[in-house]
Amino acid sequence: MSLEGLKSLLSSAGAGVVGFGDISAVVSDEISHLDRAVCIGLDRNLNRNTIDVLGSLQKKAAAWLKEKGYRYLCIPPDSDRVKGKFVSNLYPLLCHKTAATCSGLGWIGKNGLVINPVFGPRISWATVLTDAPLPPDEPIESEQCGLCSLCVSHCPSGALTGNSWSVKTPFVELIDLEKCRSHKKASRTVEGKPNCGLCINICPYGRKKFHQEELVHEKT
Amino acid sequence: MVSEEKKNELLAALKEGVIQYDEDLVKQKAQEVLDCGMDANTAIFSGLVSGMEEVGRLFEAQEYFVPELLMCADALYAGLDILKPHVSPLDLGVKGSVVIGTVEGDVHDIGKNIVKMMFDVAGFTVYDLGKDVPLDKFVDEQLRTDSDLVCLSAMMTTTMVGMQKVISNLKAKNPNVIIMIGGAPVSHDIAEKWGADGYAKDASNALSDAIRMISSLKKLKEKADANKK
């Protein structure tokens, strides 16, 4: 089976989106031999099931690569990181957002999250790094939100700066993290949970009542 | 009583599981070891540790890189977590108690954690102070726990100099304490000059030194077993 076969394997096992990214330019030196990312995204239901499915997809990808004699390193979903494992020291070396944009699965929106054309920001990610020469997808290098700035105007803490992301301007501030954090802290004291997520809910991409198919159609 | 054949099969599977960084396999086989009443010590030393010895060799030969090394270590720990509660204390004639940590200003603790793991496996009581440890804490902890081994780790030349102070303070308070130092900037000469008893050049050396240490412990254990018979 060719290396492309991994995509159909993961898709048929339930992955929402799968992409291969060339990360040779962004991966840190310690693991520079792992220059490809297998990026797996799943509709974000924020329940245990999403995380478990992502975990099993990731395991499938790892087993597939290992069987073919390639090296791999699994970066699990952010909400499923077991602390105190040796390998967890390596998780910060590459973030899912970078893997997703390199794999052409989305761009970073004004809310600082990966926006996928189909699912919008409502997507959870898992990444497998590998040295297998996977044919990379075309990366996305700048924001495609256009004039939309719903997330910026709806952010209750005014944390979003409204700036646009592009790989060419990596240090432009999208979010005032202090404001976002203090809002979550406040809502924890009031509601007992640090939940906010308005910048996810308001995004027109992937929003059910926006008829996502039409939107995607328009886009392409 | 478990048959010799089954025993060898489980030991081989544990070893292979560590080498192949297959956590699930290691967990499953470790459970089987307990279920069929096999000796947990044997499973750890002839199974898990044998696997890690091979991993150390693969790492030195650059067949394995850091991610593989860490995944193997995780697999070993997965098995250890299951087996350890059933281990009878090893009678090695050495008092197994060690204080370990990365010195003040330094947050690089992967090497330290691997060395710590080896002590764990060997049945030592490990007092892990973690990373960025204030220098006096090593001395206090050694006195508090009366450990006879202290391991210091540093990855940067700027933090390494703190070791010298710890060594002289420790030796002043307790001349019998054994001190091992490790980390990228440390050398044999430095260890000697500062009065440390042992040294490991980097993570891979610390690992192989630790493995060598475990191997000799293993021999001691085998000898002890032979004497018993």
Task: Jot down its keywords.
heterodimer, A: 220 residues, alpha+beta, 2 domains, four-stranded antiparallel sheet, two-stranded antiparallel sheet, 6 strands, 14% strand, B: 229 residues, alpha/beta, Methyltransferase, Methionine Synthase (B12-binding Domains), Chain A, domain 1, Rossmann fold, five-stranded parallel sheet, 9 helices, 5 strands, globular
Report on the structure:
The complex is a heterodimer of chains A (220) and B (229). Chain A is α+β, with helices and mostly antiparallel strands and 220 residues long. Chain A has 2 domains: 5-130; 150-219, no CATH class. Chain A contains 7 helices and 6 strands. In chain A, strands 1-2-6-3 form a 4-stranded antiparallel beta sheet, with helices on both faces. Chain A has a two-stranded antiparallel sheet with strand order 4-5. Chain A is globular, with a radius of gyration of 18 Å. With 229 residues, chain B is of the alpha/beta class. Chain B has 2 domains: 4-88, Methionine synthase domain (Methyltransferase, Methionine Synthase (B12-binding Domains), Chain A, domain 1, Orthogonal Bundle); 97-207, 3-Layer(aba) Sandwich (Rossmann fold). The longest helix of chain B has 26 residues, at 203-228. At the A-B interface, loops of A face helix 4 and helix 5 of B.
